[in-house]
Amino acid sequence: MRYKYENKAEASKSIPVKNIPGLPNDIFLKFSNLHIRFYNSINFSGYFLCTLALPAFKDDDGYVLENEFKLKRFDDLDVDLSDYDVPLQGHSIKNLQTSIACNFEDKVEMGRRILVLNMTIKGTPFNGYVFFEENLYTITGQETTTKNFST
Question: For 9-24, how does the pLDDT look when each residue is reduced to its tens digit (9 = 90+)?
Answer without folding.
Answer: 999 999 999 999 999 9
